[in-house]
From TrEMBL, chain A:
It catalyses: N(6)-[(R)-lipoyl]-L-lysyl-[protein] + 3-methyl-2-oxobutanoate + H(+) = N(6)-[(R)-S(8)-2-methylpropanoyldihydrolipoyl]-L-lysyl-[protein] + CO2. Residues 71-246 form the Transketolase-like pyrimidine-binding domain. Its cofactor is thiamine diphosphate. The lineage of its organism: Eukaryota, Metazoa, Chordata, Craniata, Vertebrata. This is 3-methyl-2-oxobutanoate dehydrogenase (2-methylpropanoyl-transferring). InterPro entries: Homeodomain-like_sf, HTH_SB, THDP-binding, Transketo_C/PFOR_II, Transketolase-like_Pyr-bd, Transketolase_C, WH-like_DNA-bd_sf. Keywords: Oxidoreductase. It is an enzyme of class 1 (oxidoreductase). The keyword Transport does not apply. GO terms for biological process: branched-chain amino acid catabolic process; response to nutrient. Its EC number is 1.2.4.4. One of its GO terms (molecular function) is branched-chain 2-oxo acid dehydrogenase activity.
Automatic annotation (TrEMBL), chain B:
It comes from Esox lucius. Its cofactor is thiamine diphosphate. Belongs to the BCKDHA family. Its EC number is 1.2.4.4. This is 2-oxoisovalerate dehydrogenase subunit alpha. Residues 108-405 form the Dehydrogenase E1 component domain. GO terms for cellular component: mitochondrial matrix. Pfam families: E1_dh. GO terms for biological process: branched-chain amino acid catabolic process. The lineage of its organism: Eukaryota, Metazoa, Chordata, Craniata, Vertebrata. The branched-chain alpha-keto dehydrogenase complex catalyzes the overall conversion of alpha-keto acids to acyl-CoA and CO(2). It contains multiple copies of three enzymatic components: branched-chain alpha-keto acid decarboxylase (E1), lipoamide acyltransferase (E2) and lipoamide dehydrogenase (E3). Keywords: Metal-binding, Mitochondrion, Oxidoreductase, Potassium, Thiamine pyrophosphate, Transit peptide. Heterotetramer of 2 alpha/BCKDHA and 2 beta chains/BCKDHB that forms the branched-chain alpha-keto acid decarboxylase (E1) component of the BCKD complex. The branched-chain alpha-ketoacid dehydrogenase is a large complex composed of three major building blocks E1, E2 and E3. It is organized around E2, a 24-meric cubic core composed of DBT, to which are associated 6 to 12 copies of E1, and approximately 6 copies of the dehydrogenase E3, a DLD dimer. Interacts with PPM1K.
């Protein structure tokens, strides 16, 4: 199972170790660049298959965190861990193969710099790694556990869900393992197949008590990882492995944090909201420019960053503005995290909480209770003027006038359609409307009225 | 001492096929110690001029005939004891010679636990609490081991270690509060009964999943080692939980990472209804220790002094030498697994009676005390009356207390409440307000 697949990678690592350390132990990972032999000058079909499926879009150089240096994603992880080990004497890093630098080189140099009691290998046992981390965290140490691939995190599922997530709650806050951070390489890499490509965030999103964070690039990675380490809750930090080498940015050398549970609007737009995290952000960046160019569609791009607890406010506010939502993630669609986002966005509760809800434009005539409206009509019938009636009942003359006008026209004091009132559309009329609206979501009321007239039905704009 | 003797016998059993001179054996032990102490050092340089195996995975001699090593379950690891079943000291040099005060305290704690168990078991039967687990027959393992530790040593338990907490001074009120899930519960009424925890007494809150505490104890011990404050960690579990993968993980991690940790296995014969011959085929849990490179011992769990001596020595060496110890305390679960269990379905009443009458930790200690005139019939009678009275008082008080405030359903999920938890809490209050006839709030703290 896990052991046989990993033989591949242990082999790769070992090869690099005995050969030339600088040549990069991860030649088989990350964006495998086109390997053109000197004789071959054009891209053959097989070579195209190895090219990565997206272009990495680096973040602009951050200016508020001090001096920066060029780093790729795994180097930004090393930098964050370096800052942590330097400032926190209780911090320890452990997992399989972290001592020599890790299969993705995230911990290179740390053991030599900080000592073998702080950066050490554990036996090959994920449930042990996380269990050990929980205990160390509960005893007061800052525990940073590495799971070699997110695909192998499942043996630790019990420890994460039943123990880490519930430690504080079940003990009445006597104990907690907030000092625990679990890191794991995550997501598609092209050739990873079933067991080196998984995105398991949805399994853990169902578990209150932990936090799940996924960065899109080195600057975000270091800041978010440092936030996770600082955070007083157990955190799982998934690192998109395809970006380990492909993503290069100017990253601050000092420690800095990027807040958790805050989604980032990367690009503003008006027609549709796009939500993603990790690698798919870069795919969607391309989608944004393609949509603008080819369809004239303006997209708003949001990087969710924290999957749990996620920033519902930013996403819902954006969807309220654009009216449309598209979510892109790498995991299976059934029960994937997109399902959670779309279900929350469509829940009426949210629209009620927002002050710019469309439901707030109800006519004032509806707000007066039926008794008062009937009284207005009676008094009018008795010959009283609008102003007099208004003064008597404490309402504006214009309101009184509106009610009386409506009564005159419709012979009713309540004329707005109520839910459950019989629908006056014929089935044909209704299907015309639905067809039109489905095809063109931007149909206006006037369009519909005109269409229906052509179809032979007269409707009022109300 | 007993530990060394046990180790040597074990050694003889496992490698009886390999001819060893005592000199070579001693050198072997030294070599292994060297490997452990200098964990980071690589093996000695490969040298094929010698006819010795050069494998990095194991250092052993070659053998030229085929022979499988016997697991040897018939005469396995011997059981260390200090008192016989009648409470008489067998080997006077093993008597820890504790003061009268200490021993009487042992006895009182064991009997107080027993009394509390009886009353709370009954209260579950009467519908006052939802669930309970008794400790009948295992009081010796709790008190003996707890007494051998420092008060600052961290305890990771499974669920049948209430005596450890009692020995450390956890008040009856708080035991009751947790079982009743009332407003005084340190755990804020969130868990089933017997899931105790105390930060002041260094007792990690119990959780229901079995054996999850074992690798956690290894991590805590590692952190304690780095703190360098002479602090040990003890981890309790039953022989059933020792079958879990987490147990294997914990043993292996603690040995490879050199943690000052005592693994205390209460082998009480049953995991709910599963007897030990369906739980394992090897020689119990103690025999697994050497497989991990761990010093191990098997003790008579119903002999408080044997448990005390083994735990004390293990603790001393664990901290001094930064290595884990495995103690398998053999005992018998006299009570049912829990209030949801009726053990007559899978074992005979005669079997239970034997242990209750002939080999009980409380009676053995009483014989020891009466032999020294430290405890009389009068003491017994008045202590029974007094302990029952204090338990009943705590019990009645706990019954009357309010349940915890409803807001506590939503706090401590994270260190700070998240927006959706705040929303959900408000939604709950609105719901309760609207349907207040269906939600009597009088029982809850305001």
């Amino acid at each position: 199972m896990a052991a046989s697949a990993r033989l591949l990678f242990r082999g790769a690592g070992l090869k690099a170790y005995t050969a030339n350390v600088n040549s990069g132990a991860q030649s088989s990972f990350g964006t495998t660049l086109l390997r053109l032999s000197p004789n071959c000058s054009s891209q053959t079909k097989t070579q195209i298959k190895h090219a990565s499926h997206f272009t990495y879009h680096p973040d602009p150089v951050p200016t508020m965190y001090g001096p920066t240096t060029k780093m790729n994603l795994f180097q930004s992880v090393t930098s964050a861990l370096d800052n942590t080990l330097a400032s926190d004497p209780t911090a320890v890093i452990f997992g399989e193969d972290v001592a020599f630098g890790g299969v993705f080189r995230c911990t290179v140099g740390l053991r030599d710099k900080y000592g073998k009691d702080r950066v050490f290998n554990t036996p090959l046992c994920e449930q042990g790694i996380v269990g050990f981390g929980i205990g160390a965290a509960a005893a007061g140490a800052t525990a940073i556990a590495e799971i070699q691939f997110a695909d192998y995190i499942y043996p630790a599922f019990d420890q994460i869900v039943n123990e880490a997530a519930k430690y504080r709650y079940r003990s009445g806050n006597l104990f907690d393992c907030g000092n625990l951070t679990i890191r794991a390489p995550w997501g598609c890499v092209g050739h990873g197949s079933l067991y080196h490509s998984q995105s398991p965030e949805a399994f853990f999103a169902h578990c209150p008590g932990i936090k799940i964070v996924i960065p899109r690039g080195p600057v975000q990675c270091k800041g978010l990882l440092l936030s996770c380490i600082e955070d007083h809750n157990p955190c799982i930090f998934f690192e998109p492995k395809i970006l380990y080498r492909a993503a290069v940015e100017q990253v601050p050398t000092e420690a800095y944090t990027i807040p958790l549970s805050q989604a980032e609007v990367l690009q503003e737009g008006s027609d549709v909201t796009l939500v993603a995290w990790g690698t798919q952000i870069h795919v969607l960046r391309e989608v944004v420019s393609m949509a603008q160019e080819k369809l004239g569609v303006s997209c708003e791009l949001i990087d969710l960053q924290t999957i749990l607890p996620w920033d519902t406010e930013t996403v819902c506010k954006s969807v309220a503005k654009t009216g449309r939502l598209l979510i892109s993630h790498e995991a299976p669609v059934t029960g994937g995290f997109a399902a959670e986002i779309s279900s929350t966005v469509q829940t009426p509760v949210h629209t009620l909480n927002q002050t710019d809800s469309n439901l707030s434009t109800m006519a004032k005539t509806r707000e007066l209770c039926k008794d008062i409206r009937d009284k207005i009509v009676d008094q009018h019938k008795a010959g009283m003027g609008y102003r007099t009636i208004g003064q008597q009942l404490g309402e504006k003359a214009t309101t009184v006038g509106a009610i009386i006008r409506k009564w005159k026209k419709f012979k009713k004091t309540v004329n707005l359609p109520q839910s459950g009132a019989p629908c006056k559309f014929s089935p044909r009329g209704a299907s015309v409307i639905m067809r039109k609206v489905r095809g063109q979501p931007r149909t206006t009321r006037l369009d519909l009225v005109n269409d229906l007239k052509r179809a032979g039905t007269t409707v009022s704009k109300n | 001492m007993a530990t060394a003797r046990g180790m040597k016998t074990m050694y003889g059993v496992c490698s009886h096929a390999v001819r060893q001179t005592t000199g070579l054996k001693a050198a072997r032990i030294l070599q292994q110690r060297a490997f452990r102490v200098n964990g980071a050092l690589r093996q000695q340089p490969f040298d094929s001029s010698e006819e010795k195996p050069q494998f990095p995975g194991a250092s052993a001699e070659f053998i030229d005939h085929l022979e499988f090593i016997q697991p040897n379950v018939i005469s396995g690891i011997p059981v260390y004891r200090v008192m016989d079943r009648a409470g008489q000291i067998i080997n006077p040099s093993e008597d820890p010679q504790l003061s009268k005060e200490t021993v009487v305290n042992f006895y009182q704690k064991m009997t107080l636990l027993n009394t509390m168990d009886r009353i709370l078991y009954e209260s579950q039967r009467q519908g006052r609490i939802s669930f309970y687990m008794t400790n009948y027959g295992e009081e010796g393992t709790h008190i003996g081991s707890a007494a051998a530790l420092d008060s600052k040593d961290l305890v990771f338990g499974q669920y049948r270690e209430a005596g450890v907490l009692m020995y450390r001074g956890f008040p009856l009120d708080l035991f009751m509060a947790q079982c009743y899930a009332n407003a005084d519960d340190l755990g804020k009424g969130r868990q089933m009964p017997v899931h105790y925890g105390s930060k002041d007494l260094n007792f990690i809150t119990i959780s229901s999943p079995l054996a999850t505490q074992i690798p956690q104890a290894a991590g805590a011990a590692y952190a304690a080692k780095r703190e360098n404050t002479n602090r040990a960690v003890i981890c309790y579990f039953g022989e059933g939980a020792a079958s879990e993968g987490d147990a294997h993980a914990g043993f292996n991690f603690s040995a490879t990472l050199e943690c000052p940790l005592i693994f205390f296995c209460r082998n009480n014969g049953y995991a709910i209804s599963t007897p030990t011959n369906e739980q394992y085929r090897g020689d119990g849990i103690a025999a697994r220790g050497p497989g991990y490179g761990m010093l191990s011992i098997r003790v008579d769990g119903n002999d408080v002094f044997a448990v005390y001596n083994a735990t004390k020595e293990a603790r001393r060496r664990a901290v001094a030498e930064n290595q884990p110890f495995l103690i398998e305390a053999m005992t018998y679960r006299i009570g049912h697994h829990s209030t949801s269990d009726d053990s007559s379905a899978y074992r005979s009443v005669d079997e239970v009676n034997y242990w209750d009458k002939q080999d009980h930790p409380i009676s053995r200690l009483r014989h020891y005390m009466t032999a020294r005139s430290w405890w009389s019939e009068d003491n017994e009678r008045s202590w029974r009356k007094q302990s029952r009275k204090t338990v009943m008082e705590a019990f009645e008080k706990a019954e009357k207390r309010h349940k915890p405030h409803l807001d506590l359903m939503f706090t401590d999920v994270y260190d700070e409440m998240t927006p959706n938890l705040i929303r959900q809490r408000e939604s709950m209050w609105r719901h309760i307000q609207q349907y207040k006839d269906h939600y009597p709030l009088d029982a809850y703290a305001k």
